[in-house]
């Protein structure tokens, strides 16, 4: 039985390069919250400071398997990013659920008719 390395070595160099490039892209798409924070050169202490919470809370948050979308949004916002939730169906165009976050953005990047106003509250991990 051949292993993956044997199969890769049997490929022509151009095909092998394409496979490796795609594998790298797929791996880059899958990141944990900790990976995102480190990619932004932020410490747990700095993110905690930005969110007004303790470093221990950030550690617990990064290790959670389940959390509120508002908590995730606040964490990403604190790192300077934005969170977008997309819904994909095989027979429909992709839809952005932007109204969940009160951003007023549509999937095409335009403004929705009435952007929601939100009060910012401190995030407390569950």
Strand proportion: 5-15%
CATH topology annotation of the largest domain:
434 Repressor (Amino-terminal Domain)
Secondary-structure element series: HHHHHHEE
Domains (count): 2
Short description:
This is Transcriptional regulator. With 126 residues, the protein is mainly alpha-helical. It is built from six helices and two strands; from the N terminus they run ααααααββ.
Describe the structure in your own words.
This protein is mostly helical and 126 residues long. The protein folds into two domains: 30 residues; 94 residues, Orthogonal Bundle (434 Repressor (Amino-terminal Domain)), CATH 1.10.260. It is built from six helices and two strands, in the order H-H-H-H-H-H-E-E. A two-stranded antiparallel sheet has the order 1-2. Strand 1 and strand 2 form a beta hairpin. Helix 4 crosses helix 5. The longest helix is centred in the N-terminal third of the chain and has 17 residues. The radius of gyration is 20 Å and the shape is extended. About 13% of the residues have low confidence. One of its GO terms (molecular function) is DNA binding. This is Transcriptional regulator. Pfam families: HTH_31.
């Amino acid at each position: 039985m051949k292993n993956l390395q044997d199969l890769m070595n049997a490929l022509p160099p151009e095909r092998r390069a394409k496979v490796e490039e795609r594998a790298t892209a797929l791996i880059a798409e899958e990141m944990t919250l900790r990976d995102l924070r480190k990619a932004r050169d932020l410490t747990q202490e700095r993110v905690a400071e930005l969110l007004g919470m303790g470093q221990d809370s950030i550690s617990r948050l990064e290790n959670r398997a389940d959390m509120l979308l508002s908590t995730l949004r606040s964490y990403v916002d604190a790192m300077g990013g934005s969170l977008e939730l997309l819904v994909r169906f095989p027979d429909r165009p992709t839809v952005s659920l932007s109204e969940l976050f009160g951003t007023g953005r549509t999937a095409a990047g335009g403004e929705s008719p009435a952007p929601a106003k939100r009060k910012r509250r401190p995030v407390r991990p569950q």
